Amino acid sequence: MAEHTHTNRLINETSPYLLQHAHNPVDWFPWGAEALDKARTEEKPIFLSIGYSACHWCHVMEHESFEDEATAALMNERFVNIKVDREERPDLDAIYMDAVVSMTGQGGWPMSVFLTPDGQPFYGGTYYPPEPRYGMPSFQQLLQSVADAYAKRRDQVLGQAQRLTNALQRSAQIGSQGAELSPALLQEATATLLQHFDDEEGGFGSQPKFPQPMTLDFCLAEYRRTGDLDVLFMAELTLEKMAHGGIYDQLGGGFHRYSVDAVWLVPHFEKMLYDNAQLLRTYLHAWQLTGRPLYRRVVDETIDYVLREMTAPAGGFYSTQDADSEGHEGKFFVWEMREIEEILGPHAAGVFASYYGVSDRGNFEGKNILSVVRDLENVAQRFRISEAEVERSLAESRAKLFAVREERIKPARDEKVLTEWNGLMIHALAECGAALGRADALAAAVAAADFILAQMSQPDGKLYRSYKDQQARFNAYLEDYAAFARGLVALYEATFDLRWLGEATRLARLMFDQFADQAGGGFYQIGADHEQLVVRRKDYIDNAIPSGNAMAAETLLRLAALLGEPRYRADAAHICAAVKDAMARQPTGFGRLLGALHTLVSPSQEIAIVGPADDPATQALLDEARKRYLPNTVLAFKQPGEASILPVLEDRELVDGKPAAYVCEHYACQLPVTTPDALARLLG
């Protein structure tokens, strides 16, 4: 059959995912007035397909169905077909995912939803095969039966759509429960986590296993609060197993999306900016708490990966890297034993294979995913060499294999810059850069923040969601404002440049203007001037990315402490109160909000440091504060004699001519100290 040369309206989009479908014979529309008007005028149902560029099954369904002429003809005749990139339009993704889950009990991508011309969902699912299998109808059979139902039993279909829409609207209206927030909620959440924890392989539940950095961060914070070793064990076992598993790229750094098994060996190979941003912070916190070199190495290698592969030359961070290369999932990352022997030679290959579990048989489709299967001591004994020699050999081997791997055809990269995901990475690189003294990480965070403010801001100061090919598009959502503002607060604490705090405060005000629910508390996902959709949702539950309300609460708590703004603290408490019972019962869905609750019910500290920026004694005080895991502490700094707009820095000056640190708890202050040891005692 001759290749189809048709192009559809997606050719004018910037999303790599939509552009992948621009040459399908399906008459795709992007979401917008043109498509909705056509559906109304022609009285046709809408077929809405939602996915993203790194989604393996999205590619499969495209190849099987959307590139097929007969399927496309049926779609074009009976439906108005709309394609959406979930990363550009999380609002549409969230609404219609709620609908699919309520209809089928599960969700995922590609998402396939059928809507009335006014956008109300009435039927949906995820992937559909080209032939009937797994007890599923074929996609063509589904299209035929949905189109027939819409044509012949329209009243039933419209009734179903209205009932579903009403249910979605009810679930979107979470109001405050108003009762007191207490540490007992944290204890209940911890007890629930312990019940679901896999105490042999780490992680929560069975398989597939997801990294869940928000839950692990909550465990670390809870250990810091209570000293409960069971909670620390949950975090440490999981972090160690992931760092040694195939979910972590042992050669290039950075984490894949999730593990398809219970032992973290076989990953789904795509790499997402948001996973790596969050895991950077979790591993940093684990290193700050325990001092274990493994965690520090993971942080350094993952920063190197982000700077090398996910950073745009103009500033900003790319979104994702695909799982597939050359049409095969994971091909870029896996090895055959003979390749390793050819590259390394027999002795080094033996050491490497022993440590990383490489064999002729392989552990993934006849090839090898690298994962740590033995400790250094065991390998040293086997080869009768010292542990230091094993380490040296492994480091040399990794460098050689990495260089060879760099010559392979790389997985495709989605080069959209998304405000929310960049906010998460700015936060991570600012925090890691300051704690580890990595100027390169800090510089990348500053460049990304500058890029978003310059290229992704609207003329009235509001933000855009997405940037690609010199075009910024789509109104930003709550999660964009909250994540970016949080990143800017972290940048202030890393650089003490007040510009970042000023921008964060401005964005917080916009967040209230655009998204706040004045009557019920909390924030809506879409702004007041957004197009009207069938539901205006409030998002409290974390998925792979923290919920918008969780990030808003955290940002407001940081600003409240730095600016002395009690209203912000009250607003954050209101968000937590709305879902406090659910947080305790389903902690893996509320990790980031549990972190905010932590700050609300624990003693939180403000550290103010005064001294000349270039004085080593000033730096020693800053280093002492930064090397510790202090989840509920904010850090502010000024030069001697400098006026400050921050209450936490008011009237703070040198002590006996020396740089000084002032530690306050809820604005009740200890006497200032001038040595790192004295500061360490105050910080506990």
Q: Can you give keywords for this protein?
A:
Glutaredoxin; Glycosyltransferase; 4 domains; 684 residues; globular; four-stranded mixed sheet
Summarize the structure.
By secondary structure, this protein is α+β, with helices and mostly antiparallel strands.
Description:
- With 684 residues, the chain is of the alpha+beta class.
- The protein folds into four domains: 9-172, Glutaredoxin (3-Layer(aba) Sandwich), CATH 3.40.30.10; 183-325 and 414-601, Alpha/alpha barrel (Glycosyltransferase), CATH 1.50.10.10; 333-407, Arc Repressor Mutant, subunit A; 605-683, Glutaredoxin (3-Layer(aba) Sandwich), CATH 3.40.30.
- Helix content is 50%, strand content 10%.
- It has 26 helices and 19 strands.
- The chain has a five-stranded mixed sheet with strand order 1-3-2-4-5, with helices on both faces.
- A hairpin with a 5-residue loop joins strand 4 (111-115) and strand 5 (121-125).
- Helix 9 (213-226) runs antiparallel to helix 10 (229-244) and helix 17 packs antiparallel against helix 18 (439-455).
- The longest helix has 19 residues, at 154-172.
- It is globular and about 85 Å long.
What is the name of the CATH architecture of the largest domain?
A: Alpha/alpha barrel
CATH topology of the largest domain: Glycosyltransferase
Give the tally of structural domains.
4
Radius of gyration: 26 Å
Spatial order of the strands in the main sheet? 1-3-2-4-5
